[in-house]
């Protein structure tokens, strides 16, 4: 049985003209200990899908699904109180833009402690010890000082590590990483990816990596889902995807990688083609 099993998930938002569907009957599974990459351009519905699974979309969003099953339990119709017992504990998420995601009014220590207070029975002293351990685990030096720091007092890479520490605080069974290296320089990107890989290997958690970076996919994933305009185009193991892509959009996406440039022009995707006509 998969750890997470999502069937025919669709998401719509109200618009001036009525309603716009941004995700069309998407299905996902991820097994314990597996790394699943969901790849696609901005606006392809990657983040919306996972926010729907987490129950974090605004009330105006219309979410439908045949099932959203986690550990054998359908969580799609849970009330807020029941959902809070799972979200942040068993299923956790690293959001885009760590500076924007962290609360600027509170120290990193307060924000880590908030998660531990919500989901564990640890006393204040034990929670502080756990927070220090988490900052050490994510590679932040002088953890006692970092716990007292506000987001604006840290770099983007440090804030991302704080976000990872918060997400890992309760040892989740499933971690969703939404563009975890966006806006970070190349050196820090590599460090963050290595950190996520190490934490995933050490804890045995499942990891869903949302990205538009095919290099990240090649380095981290066991299995890949390719999305375009809110639809799943192709799903395969990572080696097969790169060596033998089956869908026209996947081929176009891979051909547009910078390393395939010829002369002084970067390759581009031909959007005159209707890629949504069929799915591999």
UniProtKB/TrEMBL annotation:
InterPro entries membership: AAA+_ATPase, ABC_Ni/Peptide_Import, ABC_transporter-like_ATP-bd, ABC_transporter-like_CS, Oligopep_ABC_C, P-loop_NTPase
Keywords: ATP-binding, Cell membrane, Membrane, Nucleotide-binding, Transport
A Gene Ontology molecular function term of the record: ATP hydrolysis activity
Membrane-protein topology: Peripheral membrane protein
Subcellular location: Cell inner membrane
SUPFAM superfamilies cross-referenced by the UniProt entry: P-loop containing nucleoside triphosphate hydrolases
Biological process terms in GO annotation: peptide transport; transmembrane transport
Source species, domain of life: Bacteria
Occurrences of domain ABC transporter (ranges): 4-254
Principal localisation: membrane
Gene Ontology terms: cellular component: plasma membrane
Family: Belongs to the ABC transporter superfamily.
Official protein name in the record: Dipeptide transport system ATP-binding protein
Organism: Martelella mediterranea
């Amino acid at each position: 049985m998969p750890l997470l099993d999502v069937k025919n998930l669709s998401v719509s938002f109200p618009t001036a003209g009525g309603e716009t569907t941004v995700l069309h009957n998407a299905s996902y599974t991820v097994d314990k200990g597996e790394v699943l990459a969901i790849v696609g351009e901005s606006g392809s519905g990657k983040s919306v899908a996972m926010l729907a699974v987490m129950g974090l979309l605004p009330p105006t969003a219309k979410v439908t699904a045949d099932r959203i099953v986690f550990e054998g339990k359908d969580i799609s119709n849970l009330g807020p109180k029941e959902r809070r017992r799972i979200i942040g504990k068993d299923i956790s998420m690293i959001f885009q833009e760590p500076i924007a995601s962290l609360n600027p009014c509170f120290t990193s220590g307060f924000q880590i402690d908030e998660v531990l207070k919500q989901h564990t029975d640890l006393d204040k002293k034990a929670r502080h010890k756990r927070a220090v351990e988490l900052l050490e685990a994510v590679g932040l030096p002088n953890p006692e000082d970092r716990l007292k720091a506000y987001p604006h007092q840290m770099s983007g890479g440090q804030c991302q590590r704080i976000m990872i520490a918060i997400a890992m605080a309760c040892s989740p069974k499933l971690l969703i990483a939404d563009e975890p290296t966006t806006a970070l320089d190349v050196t820090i990107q590599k460090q963050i990816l290595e950190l996520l890989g190490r934490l995933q290997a050490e804890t045995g958690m499942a990891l869903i990596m949302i990205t538009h970076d095919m290099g990240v996919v090649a380095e981290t994933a066991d299995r890949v889902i390719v999305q375009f305009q809110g639809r799943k185009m192709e799903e395969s193991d990572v080696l097969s995807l790169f060596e033998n892509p089956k869908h026209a959009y996947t081929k176009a996406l891979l051909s547009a990688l910078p390393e395939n440039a010829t002369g002084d022009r970067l390759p581009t995707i031909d959007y005159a083609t209707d890629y949504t006509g069929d799915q591999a």
